[in-house]
Specification:
By secondary structure, this protein is of the alpha/beta class. It is built from four helices and five strands, in the order βββαβααβα.
Length: 133
């Protein structure tokens, strides 16, 4: 049995002027992970100029390579399980291949070794954490 289970979460916060409108000046997308030992700090998706951007497969793969994997190593998480929902950016071929190479069979995801169950309540704790930021 694995010692840790990771879940991931992304939240898109709406425009400051009207939170129901996407694409406004205040929109941001964040990602964070939770496991038995704590929370990996949020990652905010920004372009080279520091502007908030939406997530695509390339940006998600870059975050995994440059942020998530080093954070796993910093926290010395042994044999992590990683769960993510079926968002298109998560299930693009390159990020899935990267996660499979890193985690082996310990990936719960659409197109992963263990299929993600739709509408899984297991992602709920991060909804509360990230939503309160």
């Amino acid at each position: 049995m694995a010692k840790s289970v990771h879940t991931v979460h992304e939240t898109v916060f709406g425009a400051l002027e009207n939170p129901h409108v996407r694409g406004g000046r205040g929109e941001k997308t964040d990602w964070c992970a939770l496991w038995a030992g704590g929370i990996i700090d949020p990652y905010f998706f920004k372009n080279d100029e520091g502007h908030n951007v939406t997530v695509n497969g390339d940006r998600y793969g870059t975050m995994i390579t440059n942020f998530f994997i080093p954070e796993l190593n910093n926290h010395d998480v042994q044999e992590p399980w990683f769960q993510q929902d079926g968002a298109t950016c998560h299930t693009a071929r390159a990020p899935i291949d990267l996660l499979k190479d890193t985690l082996g069979d310990r990936l719960i995801s659409r197109f992963g070794p263990v299929n993600w169950p739709p509408r899984s309540c297991d992602l709920t704790p991060l909804d509360y954490f990230c939503g309160a930021m």
